[in-house]
């Protein structure tokens, strides 16, 4: 295992030597009429089978682009990739679209944010499932139909036989997201990218969906990339976290370490901005002042410097590199916070309090305010 | 309370419930809902055509008797036809017969009842319209799908160029060019003439092919442009990306996922087009010498054969209204989300 020192997933130890996914210095640049936009900049990480990596950041931080860059699904004409994406040892960035498309479904899969728009409106759910089964697994019409019902049963859709005959609009948001998961998993992919899959759902349904995903990940030894801006989801459902800001990973650590001692001021601020039960009603939330930079005009130096309460001269002149502390906790900051022996994290009472709660065990009450359901019923994803 | 309510009060409510129960049956319900609309439209159309025909056309008596008719003979004919009575009287009389299926007799050779004349002409027009529509769909749908899939690509550019061309060329020029190319040069199709479908289906289709193709050409251009635009839009949808990421072949995505929800405009305009085709296509029928509705109505107008004109126009109006009702209904077939609305 890599940096995840205390992975809560039981199957993680079963992974082989070759990582499922190895992203090295991946940069994704869009050519636009207004110039180049670097949506991802030198992103690196490794994902093993059975492991879940959380990618967190504000809107516009490059989370969604990262997922789509890995799959190679961005419009080729305007997109340039540099660096490397190795999936089970083979390079993806140099592959043609047609070659990549062969991996979509049986190897790489994605569940999208909005289950309301991800399903074809004029095709019955069972048929949509059967389309993939017939194409990827060469099933006959009858076999595919039966398998579709079984898949719906797998994602815990009640009365799957009946439900396979309905159109997407006849289902609730939660059921629809279950259907998209069933669709994404129909051809047994080894990597699933879940892009903000619970954002459009209400909290109790979101918890059920995440439980389901965790269970399936364990059953199939799948690698899972959980993209979210919801720190509650990230804290309870992932083994390791990558915090993204302005297209770069600014902090990378095991989930436990990250929530125990956030080192980047941005991470610290993100944690501090979670509303809590103890929060005085109607008092302003601890929002991070300012907005993420325009990716076409990223400031010199650290991209977070204009919003950072601890920024100094050096931050505005020199971009910090992502530096590992030797224990798997990496941060891109000249003046990291909460480092043992370093400057104490002033004003991080919230984060420290969170950390003490995390130590009680995986998936406890840390984030009850954001997920609504704090218990990780399926053993903690 | 209920025991006090007299029986005759509850009866209409029960009747209303019955009607509402019938109205809930798919297809029949929506059609029933359009019935008042249909009746109003038909009354208006029939009244207007009746008035128009009587005001604008020359004297039917003169048409029947020829230029050398004496005033006495004209008066005699007018009396026989009831043309000396007030217009409203005449209209009500005509409507009274029409609702019983009697549209009167044609005034000019080859005579016969209006119904029998239309019965001969309508199948020609129906077959022509059906074939034109079929040809248009067969060409336009695949073209539009591929043009929309690759906007700016080869198929798209060819479509763009040819569709502007074929929309700009008048039907009679197109008809003559097609006739020249395909009949006189290749002898693949008969130049003119009509074989009824019931006589010999194969020869009938051959005889209808050229005129149907002439009618279809501008339709192809129009249909494919409209459909292409909607395909381009649908392809931006999330569900298309999701379908691609599931590894479905693009052929499956285009024809099973994208085409159907993109068909709304196409269905609308093909309904309108079909309606106008059923009214007859005078130019094409003339060039290819076809005994269709256009031919029938043109002659009726020229000859001041007002019962025939009225019957034909009424039929066309009914066709329009019915087709439009069907088009409205088909939206729920295209997009199941509209079913529960």
What form of chain A results from the Cα inertia axes?
Answer: globular
Percent helix of chain B: over 70%
Oligomer: heterodimer
The name of the CATH topology of the largest domain in chain B is MetI-like fold
Question: What is the overall pLDDT average of chain B?
Answer: 82
In brief, what are we looking at here?
The complex is a heterodimer of chains A (381) and B (341). Chain A contains 13 helices and 12 strands.
Walk me through the structure.
The complex is a heterodimer of chains A (381) and B (341). Chain A has helices spanning 63-71, 97-103, 125-137, 141-154, 160-163, 173-185, 203-220, 231-237, 255-260, 265-272, 313-317, 349-358, 368-371; strands spanning 21-32, 35-47, 52-56, 79-87, 90-91, 108-111, 191-195, 223-228, 240-245, 248-254, 323-324, 330-331. With 381 residues, chain A is of the alpha/beta class. Chain A has two domains: 1-107 and 192-203 and 221-278 and 287-381, 3-Layer(aba) Sandwich (Rossmann fold), CATH 3.40.50; 116-188, no CATH class. In chain A, helix 3 (125-137) packs across helix 4 (141-154) and helix 6 packs parallel to helix 7 (203-220). Chain A is globular. Chain B has 341 residues and is mostly helical. Chain B has three domains: 1-28; 29-99, no CATH class; 114-338, MetI-like (MetI-like fold), CATH 1.10.3720.10. Helix content of chain B is 74%, strand content 0%. Chain B has helices at residues 7-23, 28-33, 35-56, 60-65, 71-81, 87-99, 114-149, 154-168, 171-185, 201-234, 238-245, 250-258, 264-278, 282-287, 293-302, 306-334. In chain B, helix 7 packs across helix 15 (293-302). Chain B is globular. In chain B, 31% of the residues are buried. The model of chain B is unreliable at 1-10 (pLDDT under 50). Classes of the chains: A alpha/beta (381), B mainly alpha (341).
Keywords:
heterodimer, A: 381 residues, alpha/beta, Rossmann fold, 2 domains, eight-stranded mixed beta sheet, four-stranded antiparallel beta sheet, 12 strands, globular, disordered N terminus, B: 341 residues, mainly alpha, MetI-like fold, 3 domains, 16 helices, 74% helix
